[in-house]
Amino acid sequence: MNEKQQTISKSVSVTGVGLHTGVVATMTFVPAPANHGYKFQRIDLPDQPIVDADVDNVVDLSRGTTIEQNGARIHTVEHTLAALVGLQIDNVLIQLDGPEPPIMDGSSIKFVDALLDAGIEEQNAYRNYFEVPEYVHYMNKETDTELVALPLSDYRLTVMVDYNSTVISSQHASLNDITLFKDDIAECRTFVFLHELEALYGQNLIKGGDLTNAIVIVDREVQDGELDHLSQLLSKPKVSVNKSKGILNNVDLHYPNEMARHKLLDLIGDLALVGRPIKAQILAARPGHAANVALAKKIKKLIKSGKGDIPQYDPNKAPVFDINQIGQLLAHRYPFQMIDKIIALDENSVVGVKNVTINEQFFLGHFPGNPVMPGVLQLEAMAQTGGILVLTSVPDPDNYWPYLIGIDACRFRRNVFPGDTVIFKCEFTSPMKRGIVKMSGRGYVAGQLVCEADMIASLVKKK
User: Fold this and answer.
1) What is the mean pLDDT of the chain?
2) CB-CB contact of 44 with 97 (8 Å)
3) How many CA atoms lie within 13 A of 142 on its CB side?
4) What is the pTM of this model?
5) Would you give the DSSP letter of residue 250?
6) Is 332 annotated in the active site?
7) pLDDT recorded at residue 99
8) Where is the signal peptide, in residue numbers (predicted)?
9) Of 36, 254, 332, 366, which residue is the catalytic one?
């Protein structure tokens, strides 16, 4: 999986009819800056409102995932989002001149092709992965649906479907490497059972559905008179059924388990609504949009709790700033230059590393015989990490001094000893106003929280 965030090199558009609304729309993927994420924009509405691709914005799950925000609604977002996740593209503005992305052929492949045609561009920011830290479970006994997310330092998905159908047996599909999405999953099309068609039309759904963008599975006997009715329903001059094949108009499948693969595609798209790239093993039995979104909400709740959101340190990875570059930004010098590396930095957060050794000058007098890093110096190291974030938020950091002017909710959770490596993460909690900014900071040793504080910093111009 990629370390750096990605966007596209140029804008690219696709046009087609929406599956459920039946409205023809053009969807344009537009490059976006680091940490932008996925956002839809209804350019056909007054003020062109933005809709964040966020699980908290889900408002309807009728045969697709619909989101709404700022008075704008976007139907059936899952195939679009799956394409972006499958290509490991992090930041895109998705402009629509209608209420629903084009269904195209019922899969994600047309979006994947368009995005690849636009070109993928690496950005100077690390991906903000959420590594699921514990067993996350969703179950619906009524639908016999069960989804599980398990800790894993990768992203793998396995899906099982079983419709008790003589046409479709139990099917399984897996994706063990996200880079295989284009080849193994992207072209797998949406499907519907024949007995569901009229009910869906009656619910004012699948207005744009036809045999070019969905597989229709014939799961019952069809009389000759019904075929004429179906041809009118699907806007086709003629439809036929081959009983041995069980698919309307004998559409060829891309894979024998195309249905399970499409359910995996939907799952990837729905879980994109968590808002961050995920590292986890996802196991899903008979998933659907409601279950997918329920699992996404559980994962997002876990993110909000802070569990699993611990920065990972790989000493083999090149730092964003080494000790010499830190010295060029911060004026602190021995014995008060507290941070050895900056290993992650974006517009809103920073991660710094402090290697604690017995050679630190403060150990000479702080609990001799039982050396413990003073809490006030842990806080100083955290503040210096935050100082890097504050200084890099302005175009001319050489012209400013960063000062710590406020501390609140400071807690020291456990002792820090010689030999420990402390990982500090600081994040903006409010935008900078008149040179004043608020941050939250946390320090970890071996994945355990050792200190935390809310800080206020001030940027003061050098005279």
Assistant:
1) 90
2) yes
3) 3
4) 0.77
5) T
6) no
7) 95
8) none
9) 366
